[in-house]
Amino acid sequence: MAPHTFFELKNAVVGIAGLGGLGSNVAVALTRLKVGKLILVDFDVVEESNLSRQNYFTDQVGCHKVDASLENLRRIHPEANLDGRKVRLTPEKVVEIFKDAHVIAECFDRADQKQMIVETVLTQMPEVPIVSVSGLAGYGRSNEIVTRRISDRLLLVGDTVSGIGPGVPLTAPRVGIAAYHQANAITELLVNELHTKLTRSAT
Amino acid sequence: MSVTLKINGQGKTFEQGLPQTLAVLLDEMKIDAATVVAEIDGQIIERAAFAQTELKEGQSIELIRFVGGG
Fold first, then answer.
1. What domains can be seen in chain B, in order of their start residue?
2. Tens-place pLDDT, residues A109-124
3. What's the domain count of chain A?
4. Chain B partners of A163 at a C-beta cutoff of 8 Å?
5. Is A112 within 8 Å of chain B by CB?
6. ipTM rounded to 2 decimals
């Protein structure tokens, strides 16, 4: 990457909806890239079972995911600009909380929640692209996880079919692949497509 | 008389006429409306409007389906 791209990322604001297997890992990747500001939203607390794939540690069980993520991300980059919100996202809250985001990462677990935020962003936030994920359960089949551009403002990561279900658990490697696809798609959007907006907001 | 829709880029023919609404189409395809973002001819249709959205011959429908996990 050319040096100027880091300047672009420094002015970027990324909204992360959900801090589970996807969101906690997307946040790590974007913090390492020194993305200007992350808005991190989750209402949940860390459970023992989350440690199988989410970026938390044993001593954080029982803590809010927002607090645990802030702590972990600040160990990577102490000056990171992080805006943590312990709320359950509704269509109204999505529009309000992510109003300054240049791009949004959909990192929810439930299919109906994914539907809710994608519909809300596409219909109510006309400037903002969203990178969503569908189909990441199980293990293996790494190369079936792809990033597809569905429309101008919707990118979809995953194999589109592997939902969580009996005998199909979520595993660290496959969730991690999807999360890093998502972080990489966001990086590409910020560098290649949103740079004009980012330069403008810096001046 | 048979009529055709394009669904996710593929032509689909209905021998008994079109399903009346988007909600009926999803029902016939056994798709849970709560997990779908739908676009007709490039226009997003909100889930709350699925039951009032009438289908017309030749429309291009994109159904983006979500499965759980994240």
1. 3-65 (3.10.20.30)
2. 999 999 999 999 999 9
3. 1
4. 67-69
5. yes
6. 0.92
